[in-house]
């Protein structure tokens, strides 16, 4: 075996235990001693051998190839596996460490080797050696690969309790990765180094470019800082806590309550209780939201309560409490009670800080101090000085008025007048507010029975300036526009009526009218005032002035009172003048208001005029009123015509009503017309009216009408007239059906197939609704009434042909003789069946002769 002997000679220091199956691999290695592939093949062949043998092979290979990363990596991996689970005092661990040290001689630029070595070394509790190794690795590797070493380094720091080392290492780490400052802060907090943690928090909070890796906002970091420094005042000594939290108060105005509580908590934990109270008081006086106030007040109350209970526990623990202890308890108790009593006032202060121009909150503040006059005066004084008229929320003048009333209630009238005097000089936003101040001042003088002073005030307030000023000109002051305030003038007029003379009051009303600021109510008041003083014509002139100033419909009340008063005074004494007034009134009166005046006009003519004038008024009225009142006016017209001229003279009115009224009312009027003719015994006239009305009565809708006609024919007709009625009914029904069918043909025929029973019902309902709408549309049109004269022409011709005497007032009733031949065939038709169903005693009596219905000459009547 020359090869084996040769190899042994070259490797005398290595104890080899070769077998026959190893010889081929040894021969290859001798031929290719620098081939990593052959060495790895040999190692793979010996993978089941003892660790001593396989380690020797790795050592031989590394001796030949010391710079092979693959051999070193696999060798170190194998060595770590061999010592897995060994104690940290085992010498084999040191052998592995030496192996790592040897590989670093050749591969100190390989980060994977450093990572494996440091990971392996970190579990051996050799703190100094591990730290030095980390430092060596950081020095050996380029800075671009330090991010692979630092996580292991930080993990090592958290693994062992070495705070000083950890702090120093973290400081080095933050130079490379300043964005990980939060990890350093957590490390400091966990190791109770709160002072430095607070310093680091201050740095990142002040850094506007800092972005939290945990997604925390700058505000959240501020809260953490405040919580940290407030709860650990003894451990944080390098920072000015008061300045830091106050800077947060300026930056984060939406969290004032929390920040104020943090600052107060800092002083409480520091043992500076009086300073904490000062902070709480300052917070309550500066916060501007109810939420912040609630937070601070609750914390303040809890602090006082705990302070009191703690003091009582300490005193109770003493064997002999002193008198000073009792005084201290009373003082603390009084302080706590005072705080609770001030809660509403403090809350009101918060609301006023939100909006110092809120008038209602100032009133609420006054109510809180009820019973304390000095404080109330102080509040009112502050309120009127603080609230700006242009920014006021609410009515500013109420503050001045209540301030003056407060002095009035305390019998300080001079002070109240002083307040009112100052109130009249304020630049209010609206003229009405200034007018209200003057009115309240005058009312105060009235309450004190100083009527002359009240009148003088009103006179002073209503002085008209020399220059013409528009009431709506915002550029002018409210004092300059006050003379056109209707509120002020109305009160002035009331005062003059109550305490002035007739001439002075009349002068006031005239000035109001001259300024053109009056209302219809002012005109009415003026007229009533003049009537009370027996100046009736003056009152009528006042009404006429108001009529000239206003238009419809505002002038309605004036006209109504004017005409009523005029008729009540003069009646028919000045009939022509009254007629002129009525004509002037109804000339431009809208239809919805003219009804009242026509009724008054008709009443006047009825009581003092002629009958034909009454009829003329009613005839004009039925055309002038709105459609909803037309039916009522026709009823009155018919009633008056019947009373004055008799019932026959109502026929033209009925005809006109049927033409003008809507279809529903026209149908009712036709029925009434027919019933009237029936009572007069004019059966043929009534039948013609029913026939005319049938043209606007769909049998499917207006069944009542057809039933009334049927009853009429049963009582007054015969078989032929009944047949004619049924024929007309069929004809009308066919007409409506034809209209509906023609309109229904326009419905789209391409309807999608019904897919379900519910859809079929819905489709049927839609179609039925559509047809009903078409029927309503067809029925909605009015049918003009055909007068008797239209039918008289054919009748005249017929009588002339027969040699009969022609009567121009006779109504022609067309009798179709051709239908008699078909009478036997029609017995089985619909009307035949209806005739058969009529009882014998109610069947119509056959008529032999139907003459024309003659009209009576209205003029002769």
TrEMBL record:
SMART domains: HAT
Residue ranges occupied by any Pre-mRNA-splicing factor Syf1/CRNKL1-like C-terminal HAT-repeats domain in the UniProt entry: 389-764
Presence of keyword Nucleus: yes
Domain Pre-mRNA-splicing factor SYF1 central HAT repeats as annotated: residue spans: 182-387
One GO CC term, this protein: U2-type catalytic step 2 spliceosome
Keyword Transcription regulation: no
Protein name: Pre-mRNA-splicing factor SYF1
Region (Disordered): 794-861
Acidic residues bias: start-end ranges: 809-829
Main location: nucleus
Family the entry assigns: Belongs to the crooked-neck family.
Organism the protein comes from: Polypedilum vanderplanki
Pfam families per record: HAT_Syf1_CNRKL1_C, HAT_Syf1_CNRKL1_N, HAT_Syf1_M
Gene Ontology biological-process entries: generation of catalytic spliceosome for first transesterification step
Superkingdom field: Eukaryota
